[in-house]
Amino acid sequence: MTLVHMVFFKFKPGIPAEQKETFVRELKKLKDLPSVKGGRLLVGGPSVTSPAEKSQGYEYALVSYHEDLAALEEYQASAEHKWVTETHLHPYKEDLVRFDFEVDGEDEHLCGFGGIMASMLGKP
């Protein structure tokens, strides 16, 4: 099974670009946690959505993959995750949206896990 974890980040007005870049850089390091399936964690932004109003002020997003809900909980409870969010997010965020879902077995291959292609690439 694969569980997809998505978070959208909105910063308070006036937060400098350098602070946001530091947050993104530190957030990307979480891909090395064992609870992140296959090291697959993406951070993107700022948003290029057009018209900009469709983003509702959310500037950055994270998408990560986890084996199951227990692995996601382990990820969120990790000292590394807590440090990044407490140091580089909470003092600067205006809002965030989180959405997690389990991938249907028939769609598992779309995440790059399992199936013939993954076997050829030597990936779980």
From TrEMBL:
Pfam family, one: Dabb
Entry superkingdom: Eukaryota
Residues in Stress-response A/B barrel domain copies: 3-101
Matches recorded under Gene3D superfamilies: 3.30.70.100
Record-linked SMART domains: Dabb (SM00886)
PANTHER family: PTHR33178, STRESS-RESPONSE A_B BARREL DOMAIN-CONTAINING PROTEIN
Subunit annotation: Homodimer.
Name under which the protein is recorded: Stress responsive A/B barrel domain protein
Organism from which the protein derives: Microdochium trichocladiopsis
